[in-house]
């Protein structure tokens, strides 16, 4: 029995014909809408007997493989009883630079359509035509070849011969994986309390093609509880691929550890972790020019061999594995990880690869979206990350500087930058004596100037792509982002303009990202949002795009209330009272640590506040060791900070850290590595313009605007910080909440049930 492989023409020819180096310098891609417009304009000139957008499908055999090759041809022309395959390509490079041999991949694509048409219609020969259209000038250029059916058939067999080793490897892997999933059992002797319920809800949600919002507390093993049923769903044919999305490196590592555990239980898989380009790049500068980077030079000549080698020998393709094989085959590790992900069963990556309109795996995803799911870990982080993704900022100074520096160098850029700067000046005048103003509508006149600037910059950068200045490149990409976000702009956005010393800033600010998040995940079979702190539910449902037929699940903590002793110290830590609170905070620490030895974390709402208490703490000359979180700590410094928390230490350790920072989420210090947590304040975001705009927006939506903008995001940080303490059934310790607001009804209601049996400390 032959193995069946479904394959698109585009995937086939791109795999076989990619060659050369990673495109260097500036690259411009014709937008989808622009390409569609050009195609339609050419197709409108077709005759009555001509056809456009013709779908092809053919069954092809190679060895033990049966390929179903599919594609859509731009046009089939009838000229003097001759059938011509017309493949239209819109290009940004000058038309005179394109010759018959410039793009072999385009010929390959057209020849595939010609073969399938000839096969269907029993033709002995076909004419193949490439029609190139220059986007800016609308100039056209055509090339033709007449090929016999035998030549086309030989060409197709050569393509399949090149692709077959990859296809055979994938098919063999799929068989082995499906068998391993059928035999796979849960990797622990028993389910923890709440764990089976969560796993069952995940599977049911995937099977029904819905979404789930789950508050899954620390301790139930939420990572394995989400992955295991999703993998079982692959074994049942419900889905083909899992995207595991995280916000931080430490949660990506947790997902990798869960996969390792399942591997030890017999799972056969290909899991690929995508690491950010600037982190995984081998060079000192992330500069993808072949003259600078040997890993970019000739990348596509080596990549197929590298992928085959990687897939033949590795299952868990994490950062270290990617780096190892990238060095072996001399390929760019970042692009290598993306290419490996095409063959991956499970892909572990940051939120932005799915949700950010500026950075995504969009074409890759669209091919198999209906059979893919999203597992979104620490989903509470997605709210603010999404706001950032769907907002865009521009500064007036960028255009003023360009208008000066390009004077006499490029008149188009100089003039368009000058007019854009003048549009900024007009908007600045609107602010009058005010420091900032906010408007519901985006600045249409400015956008018109930005469109012109973008076109001028693109022409210049295309001509000078190897010598492009950072100043122009940075501004061009910022403008592109601004234009892209303006196309998403609706009633959930606001535009604010702000004077900044000698500059003037304009921002398209996304107040409510829920609609855009829904649009980005549209088409995926299922989405599972889960977090240990996805409460209050109504807030996160609103922010993440809950629909009426979606499911929610809240699992109680598996830990007993006796494991944690909670104290409230009713001090005011409000900004105006912070100076007076330092001494009482230090005294509270002294008293609590006098009775409780061990390792402790103390979290603050800001670096400044933390450092003030830390300095006062050192002045006391107390018999404790202390370490402090610094801004911009690298991975080694983070590891050293956490490594200081050793069990059964001779001297009490106090680690000073910031709420919402790298040590308040995903840190897993079990047993005697941590004995208590202090939380100073209620985690409120700093009062500011954007939070106040959010407060006003949600108030107008009949929500509690202050809670949506300040209280709920703040308490999430508190819950995450406190969650560092109890990580297993055997952990115990103290939590000290330092703020008088914890005694208010609103905050009492937001505390976890296991924290509500607290004691109030005397001041």
Strand element count: 25
Oligomer: single chain
- Count of all domains: 4
Q: Any idea of the CATH class of the largest domain?
A: Alpha Beta
- Mean of the pLDDT scores? 91
Reported CATH architecture of the largest domain: 3-Layer(aba) Sandwich
Structural class: alpha/beta
Proportion in β-strands: 15-25%
Q: Which residue ranges are poorly predicted, with pLDDT under 50 across at least 5 consecutive positions?
A: none
Largest sheet: 8 strands, parallel
What's the helix count?
26
CATH topology of the largest domain: Rossmann fold
Q: Termini distance?
A: 79 Å
Descriptive notes:
This protein is α/β, with parallel strands linked by helices. The chain has four domains: 3-165, Alpha-Beta Complex (Lambda Exonuclease, Chain A); 194-386 and 514-554, Rossmann fold (3-Layer(aba) Sandwich), CATH 3.40.50.300; 391-510, Fumarase C, Chain B, domain 1 (Orthogonal Bundle); 561-760, P-loop containing nucleotide triphosphate hydrolases (Rossmann fold), CATH 3.40.50. The strands form four sheets. The protein has an eight-stranded parallel beta sheet with strand order 10-9-11-8-12-17-7-18, sandwiched between helices. β4 (82-91), α3 (104-121) and β5 form a beta-alpha-beta unit. α1 (9-17) crosses α3, α10 (319-329) crosses α11 (333-341) and α17 (444-463) packs across α18. The chain is globular, with a radius of gyration of 30 Å. The relative contact order is 0.08. The mean pLDDT is 91.
